[in-house]
Amino acid sequence: MIKAILIFNNHGKPRLIRFYQYFAEDLQQQIIRETFHLVSKRDDNVCNFLEGGSLIGGSDYKLIYRHYATLYFVFCVDSSESELGILDLIQVNIIQTHVFVETLDKCFENVCELDLIFHMDKVHYILQEVVMGGMVLETNMNEIVGQVELQNRMEKSEGGLSAAPARAVSAVKNMNLPEIPRNINIGDINIKVPSLSPF
Amino acid sequence: MALKIVKGSIDRMFDKNLQDLVRGIRNHKEDEAKYISTCIDEIKQELKQDNIAVKANAVCKLTYLQMLGYDISWAAFNIVEVMSSSKFTYKRIGYLAASQCFHEGTDVIMLTTNQIRKDLSSPNQYDTGVALTGLSCFVTPDLARDLANDIMTLMSHTKPYIRKKAVLIMYKVFLKYPESLRPAFPRLKEKLEDPDPGVQSAAVNVICELARRNPKNYLSLAPLFFKLMTSSTNNWVLIKIIKLFGALTPLEPRLGKKLIEPLTNLIHSRLVITLHRASVEKNVCLIGLVLPIVCVCVCVSNAVLISLSSGMPNHSASIQLCVQKLRILIEDSDQNLKYLGLLAMSKILKTHPKSVQSHKDLILQCLDDKDESIRLRALDLLYGMVSKKNLMEIVKKLMLHVDKAEGTTYRDELLTKIIDICSQSNYQYITNFEWYISILVELTRLEGTRHGHLIASQMLDVAIRVKAIRGFAVAQMAMLLDSGHLLTGNMQRNGICEVLYAAAWICGEFSEHLDDPMQTLEAMLRPKVASLPGHIQAVYVQNAAKLFATVLQKHEGATDSQAAQDTSQLLIERLPLFVQSANLEVQERASCILQLVKYIQKLQQKDVEVAEEVSALFAGELNPVAPKAQKKVPVPEGLDLDAWINEPPSESESEDEKPKAVFAKEEPKQSRARHIEVDEKELARRREARKQEQANNPFYIKSSPSSQKVYQDAPGVEHIPVVQIDLSVPLKVPGMPMSEQYLKLEEERRQKERADKKKKDKKKKKREKRGKGKRDDSGPESEEDITPAHQVDIVTEEMPENALPSDDDDKDPNDPHKALDIDLDKYVPSAENTLHKVTVCMLHAEKQGDLSITRHFLV
Lengths: 199, 859
Prior knowledge:
The complex is a heterodimer of chains A (199) and B (859).
Chain A: E1 2-9, E2 14-19, H1 25-40, E3 49-51, E4 62-68, E5 71-77, H2 83-104, H3 113-118, H4 120-130, E6 131-132, E7 135-136, H5 141-157, H6 164-173, H7 186-196
Helix pairs in contact in A: 2-4, 2-5, 4-5
Chain B: H1 2-13, H2 18-27, H3 32-48, H4 52-67, H5 76-83, H6 88-101, H7 113-120, H8 125-138, H9 141-154, H10 160-176, H11 181-190, H12 197-213, H13 222-231, H14 235-248, H15 253-280, H16 286-310, H17 315-331, H18 335-351, H19 353-357, H20 360-366, H21 372-385, H22 391-404, H23 408-427, H24 433-443, H25 452-465, H26 470-483, H27 498-509, H28 517-524, H29 534-557, H30 561-579, H31 584-605, H32 611-616, H33 629-632, H34 651-675, H35 680-696, H36 707-713, H37 739-764, H38 768-773, H39 831-848, H40 851-858
Helix pairs in contact in B: 2-3, 3-4, 4-5, 4-6, 5-6, 6-8, 7-9, 8-10, 9-10, 10-12, 12-14, 13-14, 13-39, 14-16, 15-16, 15-17, 16-17, 16-18, 17-18, 18-21, 20-21, 21-23, 22-23, 24-25, 24-26, 25-27, 26-27, 26-28, 27-29, 28-29, 29-30, 29-31, 30-31, 30-36, 39-40
Protein name (chain B): AP-3 complex subunit delta
Domain AP-3 complex subunit delta (chain B): 678-825
Organism (chain B): Electrophorus electricus (Electric eel)
């Protein structure tokens, strides 16, 4: 069984957390801090397995992690999981699927921290197709990608969470609005708004 | 109305979405908490709106905030609302939030039952999928009970996507609602042969999880799994099945016999190939490596068990093969392979220690590895590899590492391992306890370890249980008490001062072995002791009294009454320091003993011999009691512990009782009233007593020279400037024994013994020796040849009479898997069903030609 999946960056900031056993929020944060502390002091050329996290589980549990650029992917698993299998799962299924899904969207070329930061929900949805309730659900990457794609398509057909108007607005907001209004005149708005949004 | 809608959508335009929230948090690095609290206020406003899209957006943001550690349980009801939206987009957000923050204590969960049931039967497979995924995270016993049937129907859904999720979630349902296991099991078994590999793998996954805890109930599935193992190409499934067989073989030895051939083949083929690949393209081809490693472990444990039961001739060959392959892994430069090799080794070690012991050099080498995980693994292996012969050598190596280790966690781990290794199976491997005591004393040099109490309990245990060592132990402990290096440093953080607890107790209890009890007594009453933790001070005080008794006896034996009186005087001077301790235990013991000593002093002044009586206070041996002894006391026949001793008082009776109780309370009041008429003398005496009490009370401002001052005036100690020495080099305390010298001594002793023995052997068994020579090749001497340095009598811990040694009390009563220990072959509700199942399984078994399993069914 997998007890928890944690993704955090080189400074210990959580980017995705998924516990398969209930912990209160403050305890979750404590676990993240402890795990980060354990993992971050290890060199990159040592092995990817770590025993001795005291907060989750105990002696039967171990941490299996991978470090990619600025991100740590940490799985906390018990003895029924195969160590190399989980390592492989992290690499092939989570990272590559992510890259794959995102490239299909023509959004990102490579997995990087920023995608995770801004699309935490999407990463969760991918993860849900790989691991369910602490057990590995699917290891075939094509299958995972296919299911995620179909679901995304369905979301699009429903218009998505932020339908067209909201998107346009967020584009406006991206222009750092608080600065603009001070020295703006009406003429400017007349020019800008039509070009911006397909209302 | 129209206006309202327009207004709502304009408002919506300026709602933040998840990306805006994240961006905002990133832009407010300095006042993040403040920014988030305003965001939460906004979210609360959004949740109040009727628009479900706004709500979903708000819940999505809450999920992000939950990750940052904010409690979002207040929005649980809104999450349920979003979950019940008809749109997949929103539903998915709702279920995600629910799976992140719902748990058994969430009260709105019971509102979700019908919604989830509706989603489970939705025509859209992704609605069902999302509901299943969410449910797998927050399923409660109630939900499991109510939805078990719905999920069971989903196990035969037309879409494999739903089938695999339904199969997998059944494990969670079983855990929460064990009654569902029996009706669901036949269908679960069917899924093992599902045409879709994903469903098959999910079923294997669930059964493996179940069988891991209660393997014997799943023995009947062995033929099925055997077929899967030989036919499946999915590595994940293979790993799970092989792990399952690992749990099953101990129960059915013949199974192992069948497995050995395919597994050996796998080791041969896959490991060679993958190792080759690994060296070519490191880290890339991990998937191929997954399998063989596991094979190796399981195969070995199987092989060993088979060899034990049926004595197959080629078992040692396959174990040798495994160990050799593992050695290749451990020697590999890839750290992950090294780790897994060591992990697998430890599994072999459990059943077949001999074949691993020959690789001791390799394991010791791993102790020098830069990676802590690998060092810990190697340590773990060492635990199983020690013998009488190599214990001292291994511990010597470990001691070197203790000195070198930089991190405290690793050093602490080393320390516990050293103690574990030495004390395992009742000190089985220790031949020289003097050596062990000196190792323990050396370990006290570690600053800042958390395991002071561990060392202390070992010292106590050895000193109590090994009678022959007491003299030596007492001398060492006296030295520890005397040297005082343990007293320096930060007491609160420094756990090592726990050792003084043991030292003081041993010196007190076995004080007859002390050379100079007076010196130890003085050491124990030093003012600096008052800075130790309370429980240690308490032991100091109590044992000072024991030492006092010994000293008295010594002096009176030598008719040196002046020296005896000096000793009493010393105690009377020093004990007040402890009387004013903040710790109640210390205070109580100290004041008790102080009064006792005062009385003794009075008697001494009258030239009365007191030593005999004082030592009678502490006479008698304290025997070790086994930790489980109390639990093991058998209940005498005819005694019912749950029965009432008296008739339980009824409600009305207790009310009747009340006035009586009041009456009883009044009585002492009267007697106290009588006391009030006391004479002047008594009053004066009491005034004196009160003054005395105030003098001893640290919270009173005193007029007379306080005892605090007495402490400061204590002879000489305060005037000695104490310089804190920060030594990075381990402190070699002069006079302390070095364990190394024992190593040499032991070597010499053994050599001498060997020489003696040889002489004898030569005389007696000249001919027999030839045949023996071959066996002796493995080492210079065989295990049995080493005799302990001195007659060691390890006192066993006391157990009550009639107590039966049993392991049943080791099990955790709260283990959820206990409820799942259901014999699935027996007591199936409908008889028809049973018959069908048995025949099906028998057919399987016959196909495989495994008679033992057929027999298993017929029993």
